[in-house]
Every structure is written in C-alpha cells, then in structure tokens.
C-alpha cells in the first residue's frame, strides 16, 4: 500500500486519537491497541517517514496515559484478561473455528477406529491403562485412577503436564501450522477412543458426569492452544500486506499471548481433576452444574463476550467519528 493511501484512509482516525482525552481504561486500551497496529505497519513499510514518527508520538502519549502510575499498571494486568485476550479471540475467531473443527473431526476418527478395531484403544491409551481400568471396572470403581495419588500432588503434576501440552501445541505451529494440527488430531483421537472405551462398557453417561468435570476446561484449553499454533504458522504462510518476517513476529506475539492467557484455565481444570473429579460418588446434579458452568463460561468468554466487546469498541469509535 502506498504511504499516501495509508495516510488518507487513517488520517481522520489518527486525529481523533491525537485529541483523545477519555478516562475509560477499556476505551483507552482499545484505541492504543489499534494505534500500535497502525504504527507497526508504518514501521514495516515506511520506517523513516514522517508518518511513522507522527504515529510513534501519539502512541507514546497513549502509553504514558495507560502506565502513568502504579495503580494503573496493576489494572493493566487485569485488563489483559478483561479486554486484550478476548479481543484476540475475536480477531482470530477463524483460527479458533478451524482448530475446533480439526479437533472434532479427530474425535470422530478416534470413535470410528475404536469401534471397528479392538486393538485401537490399547494402541492409543496403552495396555497398562486399559488393564488397570478393566480391573477398576471389575471392582466397581471404573474411575479409580483419579484416586490413586494425593490431591495436591495430582493437581501440580496435571497442571504442569497440561501447560506443557498447551505450549507444545502452540510452538509446534511454527512448522507451517502442520505441527499444531497434528497435536490437535492426536489429542482428539485419544479423546474419541477414550470415550468409546467407556461407552462400549455401558459407562458412557457416568464417564461424562465424572471426567468432564475437569475435561470441559481442559479440552477447551487444548483447542485454544491449537488455534494459537495456527496463528503462529499462518504468520509465515499468509503475510498479507506485511513482510513475511513482520507477519511472523505478529503471529508469534499474538499466539503467545493466547497460549499464556489460557494458563489460568488450565490450572483451574487441574484443580478440578486433582481435588474434585476423584469424588465419583457426588450427586449427578452437582457434577452437571460444574461441567455446565464450565462450558457456559468458555462459550461466553471465547465467543460471546469478545464479539460484544469488539462491537462496543466499534460503536465508540463510530460515535466519536460522527461527533
């Protein structure tokens, strides 16, 4: 894009930003994010131009307004989960959808494979796990595996493992997104064969009531990590108007924010698995309440709230433009 066209398309917006004196932290952060995106574009294509220096000056003022005192710096930490991360979810909603589709298709592959090949479940889950679970079923405690270790140890071990899986899924996206897809498919096939194993033994509904207490958040986090990996890989594959390296840096930065941003979700899932899932005798209504609340939260935080937040920012900018 020629610099003159770039300036013409954005000049009116920049002038509003230059005169901006709002105190609302959400609005301030939204404008700052948009402005830094324009600045990154200008630095890439017009690094020594007056336009770049002009945008850098406005961005500096916004930066000072956001970080001008200690209280606002602490608020900035919360602002990441309140605004920046949800806006990234909205910005990369297509990658989230693709990751979800890859995962669901893989679950189907796992179910079909387990149904038509008796050896498949053992191949995916391992003989040791299957034999142990068969013994637990014979004892009348099919989900006894969740009671073998102490709560605290299990929580820490599971949290560490799942954070590793999420970060691995993200980083593997550097291989042109293929690595992230493979990780999603591997986890999806495992889940599909895992659930078929219990359904084939008449324990399907019980497995949902027990395992999905923590699985709702855990699986959601894996899908989001897969989307972060796609963002990383797509930065190399589809640079659009940016130089390929600049596009890769942007994809890596945004993907990393998403991958790190879901760590609290992963930790919460590990807490449920370590301290709650083991209570397989809990009433069905309580189990349903936990997993339904988790599902509703994920749908709201990843889909509904980001769309609403983006709409509010758009309306604010449009209103200021008319004003």
Structure description:
With 323 residues, this protein is mostly helical. The chain has two domains: 3-84 and 311-322, no CATH class; 89-308, no CATH class. It is 83% helix and 0% strand. The protein contains 13 helices and no strands. It has helices spanning 3-18, 25-45, 50-66, 70-91, 93-116, 120-125, 127-139, 151-171, 178-199, 204-237, 244-261, 263-276, 284-322. Helix 5 packs across helix 9 and helix 10 (204-237) packs parallel to helix 13 (284-322). The longest helix is centred in the last third of the chain and has 39 residues, at 284-322.
* Rg, Å, rounded: 24 Å
Strand content: under 5%
Mean pLDDT: 88
Work out the count of structural domains: 2
Terminal Cα separation, in Å? 29 Å
Structural class: mainly alpha
Order of helices and strands: HHHHHHHHHHHHH
| Unreliable segments of 5+ consecutive residues | none
Anisotropy-based shape: elongated
Total of helices: 13
Major sheet description:
none
- Quantity of strands, as a count: 0
**Percent in helix:** over 70%
What key phrases describe this protein's structure?
323 residues, 13 helices, mainly alpha, 0% strand, elongated
Short description:
The longest helix has 39 residues. This protein folds into 2 domains: 94 residues, no CATH class; 220 residues, no CATH class.
Layout: helices, strands, pairs:
Layout: H1 3-18, H2 25-45, H3 50-66, H4 70-91, H5 93-116, H6 120-125, H7 127-139, H8 151-171, H9 178-199, H10 204-237, H11 244-261, H12 263-276, H13 284-322
Helix pairs in contact: 2-3, 4-11, 4-13, 5-9, 5-10, 8-9, 8-10, 8-12, 9-10, 10-11, 10-12, 10-13
């Amino acid at each position: 894009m020629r610099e003159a066209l770039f300036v013409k398309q954005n000049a009116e917006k920049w002038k509003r930003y230059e005169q901006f004196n709002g105190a609302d932290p959400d609005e301030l952060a939204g404008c700052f994010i948009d402005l830094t995106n324009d600045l990154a574009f200008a630095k890439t294509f017009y690094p020594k131009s007056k336009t770049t220096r002009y945008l850098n000056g406005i961005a500096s003022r916004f930066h000072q307004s956001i970080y001008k005192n200690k209280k606002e710096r602490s608020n900035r930490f919360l602002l990441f989960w309140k605004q920046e991360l949800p806006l990234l979810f909205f910005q990369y909603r297509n990658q989230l959808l693709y990751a979800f589709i890859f995962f669901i298709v893989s679950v189907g592959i796992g179910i079909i494979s387990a149904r038509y090949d008796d050896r498949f479940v053992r191949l995916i889950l391992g003989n040791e796990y299957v034999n142990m679970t068969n013994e637990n079923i014979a004892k009348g405690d099919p989900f006894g595996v969740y009671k073998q270790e102490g709560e605290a140890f299990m929580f820490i071990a599971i949290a560490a493992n799942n954070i590793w899986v999420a970060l691995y899924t993200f980083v593997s996206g550097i291989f042109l997104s293929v690595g992230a897809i493979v990780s999603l498919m591997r986890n999806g096939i495992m889940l599909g064969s895992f659930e078929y194993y219990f359904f084939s033994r008449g324990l399907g509904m019980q497995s949902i009531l027990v395992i999905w207490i923590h699985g709702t958040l855990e699986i959601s986090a894996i899908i989001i990590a897969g989307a972060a990996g796609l963002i990383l890989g797509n930065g190399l594959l589809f640079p659009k108007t940016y130089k390929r390296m600049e596009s890769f840096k942007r994809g890596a930065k945004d993907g990393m924010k998403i991958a790190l941003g879901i760590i609290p979700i992963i930790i919460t899932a590990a807490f449920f698995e370590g301290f709650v899932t083991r209570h397989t005798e809990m009433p069905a209504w309580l189990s349903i309440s936990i997993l339904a609340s988790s599902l509703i939260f994920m749908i709201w935080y990843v889909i509904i709230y980001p769309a609403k937040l983006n709409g509010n920012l758009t309306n604010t900018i449009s209103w200021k433009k008319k004003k």
